[in-house]
Amino acid sequence: MKMTVLGPWGGYPKAGEASAGYLFQSEGYNLLIDCGSGVLAKLQHHLSVEELDSVIISHYHPDHIADVGVLYHGRLIQSKTKYELPVLPIYGHSHDEAGFNNLGHEPYTEARSYTEEDRLELGPFSITFQKTKHPVVCFAMRITDGKHTVVFTADSSYIKEFEVFSAGADLLISECNLYADMDGSKMGHMNSTDAATIASAANVSTLMLTHLPHFGELSDLQKDAKHYFDGEVVLASTGLVWDSEEEI
Ligand SMILES: [Zn+2]
Ligand SMILES: [Zn+2]
Protein backbone atom coordinates (compact mmCIF):
# COMPACT_ATOMS: atom_id res chain seq x y z
CA MET A 1 0.00 0.00 0.00
CA LYS A 2 1.21 3.46 -0.83
CA MET A 3 -0.07 6.68 0.75
CA THR A 4 0.87 10.09 -0.61
CA VAL A 5 0.25 13.31 1.30
CA LEU A 6 -1.39 15.83 -1.03
CA GLY A 7 -2.26 18.39 1.63
CA PRO A 8 -0.67 18.59 5.11
CA TRP A 9 -2.18 21.90 6.24
CA GLY A 10 -4.99 22.49 8.71
CA GLY A 11 -7.61 25.17 8.06
CA TYR A 12 -6.27 26.51 4.76
CA PRO A 13 -3.33 25.80 2.46
CA LYS A 14 0.01 27.58 2.50
CA ALA A 15 0.91 29.34 -0.80
CA GLY A 16 1.18 26.77 -3.59
CA GLU A 17 0.14 23.90 -1.29
CA ALA A 18 -3.06 22.20 -0.16
CA SER A 19 -5.18 21.50 2.91
CA ALA A 20 -6.36 17.96 3.77
CA GLY A 21 -5.94 15.31 1.07
CA TYR A 22 -4.34 11.83 1.09
CA LEU A 23 -4.00 9.47 -1.86
CA PHE A 24 -4.12 5.74 -1.07
CA GLN A 25 -3.01 3.28 -3.75
CA SER A 26 -2.94 -0.50 -3.81
CA GLU A 27 -3.22 -3.05 -6.64
CA GLY A 28 -3.83 -0.26 -9.17
CA TYR A 29 -6.77 1.20 -7.22
CA ASN A 30 -6.71 4.93 -6.38
CA LEU A 31 -8.61 6.16 -3.34
CA LEU A 32 -8.61 9.79 -2.23
CA ILE A 33 -9.33 10.60 1.41
CA ASP A 34 -10.55 14.18 1.86
CA CYS A 35 -10.49 16.77 -0.89
CA GLY A 36 -9.39 20.09 0.59
CA SER A 37 -8.31 23.35 -0.98
CA GLY A 38 -5.60 22.79 -3.61
CA VAL A 39 -5.86 18.99 -3.51
CA LEU A 40 -6.89 18.60 -7.15
CA ALA A 41 -3.80 20.45 -8.37
CA LYS A 42 -1.56 18.32 -6.17
CA LEU A 43 -3.33 15.09 -7.15
CA GLN A 44 -2.37 15.62 -10.79
CA HIS A 45 1.33 15.33 -9.96
CA HIS A 46 0.56 11.66 -9.30
CA LEU A 47 -2.40 10.69 -11.48
CA SER A 48 -5.08 12.24 -13.67
CA VAL A 49 -8.58 13.03 -12.42
CA GLU A 50 -9.97 10.23 -14.60
CA GLU A 51 -7.77 7.65 -12.85
CA LEU A 52 -9.37 8.24 -9.46
CA ASP A 53 -11.62 5.33 -8.38
CA SER A 54 -13.34 6.67 -5.26
CA VAL A 55 -13.25 9.38 -2.61
CA ILE A 56 -14.09 9.37 1.10
CA ILE A 57 -14.76 12.60 3.00
CA SER A 58 -14.27 12.73 6.78
CA HIS A 59 -16.43 15.81 7.42
CA TYR A 60 -17.74 18.95 5.79
CA HIS A 61 -15.35 21.67 6.94
CA PRO A 62 -14.00 23.68 3.98
CA ASP A 63 -10.38 22.56 4.45
CA HIS A 64 -11.57 18.98 3.74
CA ILE A 65 -14.11 19.55 0.94
CA ALA A 66 -13.12 22.75 -0.88
CA ASP A 67 -12.07 20.91 -4.07
CA VAL A 68 -15.05 18.54 -4.31
CA GLY A 69 -16.75 20.90 -6.78
CA VAL A 70 -13.72 21.24 -9.06
CA LEU A 71 -13.23 17.48 -8.95
CA TYR A 72 -16.71 17.23 -10.47
CA HIS A 73 -15.66 19.74 -13.15
CA GLY A 74 -12.56 17.69 -13.88
CA ARG A 75 -14.59 14.50 -14.34
CA LEU A 76 -17.17 16.32 -16.47
CA ILE A 77 -14.57 17.91 -18.77
CA GLN A 78 -12.60 14.68 -19.22
CA SER A 79 -15.84 12.78 -19.86
CA LYS A 80 -16.81 15.23 -22.62
CA THR A 81 -13.39 15.52 -24.25
CA LYS A 82 -11.84 12.04 -23.92
CA TYR A 83 -14.20 9.18 -23.16
CA GLU A 84 -17.17 8.64 -20.92
CA LEU A 85 -15.99 8.03 -17.38
CA PRO A 86 -17.80 5.86 -14.85
CA VAL A 87 -19.50 7.85 -12.09
CA LEU A 88 -17.03 8.66 -9.31
CA PRO A 89 -18.43 7.65 -5.90
CA ILE A 90 -17.79 10.18 -3.14
CA TYR A 91 -18.55 8.75 0.29
CA GLY A 92 -19.55 10.99 3.16
CA HIS A 93 -21.67 10.70 6.30
CA SER A 94 -25.26 11.92 6.15
CA HIS A 95 -25.47 13.55 9.60
CA ASP A 96 -25.25 16.87 7.74
CA GLU A 97 -27.75 16.72 4.90
CA ALA A 98 -26.56 19.86 3.10
CA GLY A 99 -22.93 18.80 3.29
CA PHE A 100 -23.74 15.33 2.04
CA ASN A 101 -25.92 16.57 -0.82
CA ASN A 102 -23.10 18.82 -2.06
CA LEU A 103 -20.83 15.84 -2.69
CA GLY A 104 -22.55 14.54 -5.80
CA HIS A 105 -23.10 16.01 -9.26
CA GLU A 106 -24.54 13.14 -11.27
CA PRO A 107 -23.74 11.54 -13.61
CA TYR A 108 -20.11 12.53 -12.97
CA THR A 109 -19.86 12.22 -9.21
CA GLU A 110 -22.29 10.51 -6.85
CA ALA A 111 -22.77 11.03 -3.10
CA ARG A 112 -22.88 7.77 -1.15
CA SER A 113 -23.32 7.61 2.60
CA TYR A 114 -21.40 5.65 5.20
CA THR A 115 -22.15 5.13 8.86
CA GLU A 116 -20.00 4.22 11.83
CA GLU A 117 -21.22 0.61 11.61
CA ASP A 118 -20.20 0.20 7.98
CA ARG A 119 -17.23 -1.57 6.51
CA LEU A 120 -16.67 -0.10 3.07
CA GLU A 121 -15.09 -2.40 0.52
CA LEU A 122 -13.48 -0.33 -2.24
CA GLY A 123 -11.21 -2.27 -4.58
CA PRO A 124 -8.54 -3.86 -2.38
CA PHE A 125 -9.35 -1.51 0.50
CA SER A 126 -11.54 -2.21 3.48
CA ILE A 127 -12.45 0.85 5.56
CA THR A 128 -14.03 1.17 9.00
CA PHE A 129 -15.00 4.33 10.87
CA GLN A 130 -14.74 5.94 14.30
CA LYS A 131 -16.68 9.05 15.24
CA THR A 132 -14.33 11.79 16.43
CA LYS A 133 -14.70 14.77 18.78
CA HIS A 134 -14.94 17.89 16.64
CA PRO A 135 -17.32 20.89 16.38
CA VAL A 136 -19.09 19.09 13.49
CA VAL A 137 -19.68 15.37 12.96
CA CYS A 138 -16.46 13.83 11.69
CA PHE A 139 -15.16 10.28 11.21
CA ALA A 140 -11.70 8.77 11.52
CA MET A 141 -10.89 5.87 9.21
CA ARG A 142 -9.01 2.61 9.50
CA ILE A 143 -7.90 1.56 6.03
CA THR A 144 -6.46 -1.85 5.22
CA ASP A 145 -5.64 -3.70 2.02
CA GLY A 146 -5.41 -6.99 3.89
CA LYS A 147 -1.64 -6.72 4.22
CA HIS A 148 -1.10 -3.31 5.80
CA THR A 149 -3.18 -0.91 7.82
CA VAL A 150 -3.26 2.87 8.04
CA VAL A 151 -5.39 4.87 10.48
CA PHE A 152 -6.34 8.48 9.73
CA THR A 153 -7.73 10.40 12.69
CA ALA A 154 -9.28 13.17 10.54
CA ASP A 155 -10.07 16.16 12.79
CA SER A 156 -10.54 15.53 16.49
CA SER A 157 -9.48 16.31 19.99
CA TYR A 158 -8.05 13.37 21.93
CA ILE A 159 -10.44 10.52 22.61
CA LYS A 160 -9.50 7.28 24.32
CA GLU A 161 -11.28 5.31 21.57
CA PHE A 162 -8.46 6.16 19.15
CA GLU A 163 -6.13 3.85 21.08
CA VAL A 164 -8.20 0.76 20.26
CA PHE A 165 -9.18 1.99 16.80
CA SER A 166 -5.50 2.47 15.88
CA ALA A 167 -4.22 -0.73 17.51
CA GLY A 168 -1.28 -2.27 15.68
CA ALA A 169 -1.52 -0.03 12.61
CA ASP A 170 1.53 0.26 10.38
CA LEU A 171 0.93 3.98 10.07
CA LEU A 172 -1.09 6.41 12.17
CA ILE A 173 -1.81 9.69 10.35
CA SER A 174 -2.79 11.90 13.25
CA GLU A 175 -3.97 15.42 13.14
CA CYS A 176 -1.67 17.67 15.14
CA ASN A 177 -3.02 21.17 14.88
CA LEU A 178 -1.54 22.35 18.16
CA TYR A 179 1.70 22.47 20.13
CA ALA A 180 2.26 20.52 23.32
CA ASP A 181 1.41 23.41 25.66
CA MET A 182 -1.96 24.03 23.98
CA ASP A 183 -5.15 22.28 25.10
CA GLY A 184 -7.24 21.17 22.13
CA SER A 185 -10.02 19.46 24.07
CA LYS A 186 -12.47 22.35 23.54
CA MET A 187 -11.32 23.20 20.01
CA GLY A 188 -11.71 19.72 18.59
CA HIS A 189 -8.03 19.34 17.76
CA MET A 190 -5.01 17.50 19.12
CA ASN A 191 -1.56 18.56 20.15
CA SER A 192 1.66 16.62 19.62
CA THR A 193 1.44 14.94 23.02
CA ASP A 194 -2.09 13.68 22.29
CA ALA A 195 -1.00 12.20 18.94
CA ALA A 196 2.05 10.51 20.45
CA THR A 197 0.02 9.14 23.37
CA ILE A 198 -2.33 7.40 20.93
CA ALA A 199 0.57 6.11 18.81
CA SER A 200 2.25 4.67 21.89
CA ALA A 201 -0.87 3.06 23.40
CA ALA A 202 -1.86 1.63 20.02
CA ASN A 203 1.68 0.39 19.39
CA VAL A 204 1.74 1.63 15.79
CA SER A 205 4.94 1.48 13.74
CA THR A 206 5.02 5.02 12.40
CA LEU A 207 3.31 8.22 13.51
CA MET A 208 2.76 10.91 10.90
CA LEU A 209 1.74 14.34 12.20
CA THR A 210 -0.52 16.30 9.87
CA HIS A 211 -3.24 18.99 9.69
CA LEU A 212 -0.35 21.24 10.63
CA PRO A 213 -0.64 24.65 12.28
CA HIS A 214 0.22 27.93 10.53
CA PHE A 215 2.26 29.22 13.45
CA GLY A 216 5.18 28.17 15.61
CA GLU A 217 8.12 25.94 14.75
CA LEU A 218 6.79 22.74 13.15
CA SER A 219 9.85 20.68 14.11
CA ASP A 220 8.82 21.20 17.76
CA LEU A 221 5.76 19.02 17.10
CA GLN A 222 8.00 16.15 16.07
CA LYS A 223 10.44 16.74 18.93
CA ASP A 224 7.67 16.70 21.52
CA ALA A 225 5.98 13.63 20.05
CA LYS A 226 9.25 11.72 20.31
CA HIS A 227 9.19 12.16 24.10
CA TYR A 228 6.02 10.07 24.29
CA PHE A 229 6.40 7.60 21.41
CA ASP A 230 9.39 5.34 20.74
CA GLY A 231 8.54 4.56 17.11
CA GLU A 232 9.22 6.62 14.04
CA VAL A 233 7.69 10.13 13.99
CA VAL A 234 7.43 12.05 10.72
CA LEU A 235 5.96 15.41 9.83
CA ALA A 236 3.57 15.34 6.88
CA SER A 237 4.67 17.41 3.91
CA THR A 238 3.39 17.89 0.38
CA GLY A 239 4.18 14.85 -1.78
CA LEU A 240 5.56 12.79 1.11
CA VAL A 241 5.06 9.09 0.34
CA TRP A 242 4.60 6.31 2.85
CA ASP A 243 5.07 2.97 1.16
CA SER A 244 4.41 -0.20 3.16
CA GLU A 245 7.24 -1.89 1.26
CA GLU A 246 9.82 0.79 2.03
CA GLU A 247 11.09 2.94 4.86
CA ILE A 248 10.25 6.64 4.65
ZN1 LIG B 1 -9.57 20.46 9.23
ZN1 LIG C 1 -12.63 20.20 10.80
From TrEMBL:
Residue ranges annotated for the Metallo-beta-lactamase domain, each copy included: 18-211
Signal peptide, first to last residue: none
Keywords per UniProt: Hydrolase, Zinc
Keyword Transport annotated: no
Translocase is among the record's keywords: no
GO MF annotations, alphabetized: 3'-tRNA processing endoribonuclease activity
Domain of life: Bacteria
Protein name, entry field: MBL fold metallo-hydrolase
Entries under SUPFAM superfamilies matching the protein: Metallo-hydrolase/oxidoreductase
Pfam families reported in the protein's UniProt record: Lactamase_B_2
InterPro entries: Metallo-B-lactamas, RibonucZ/Hydroxyglut_hydro
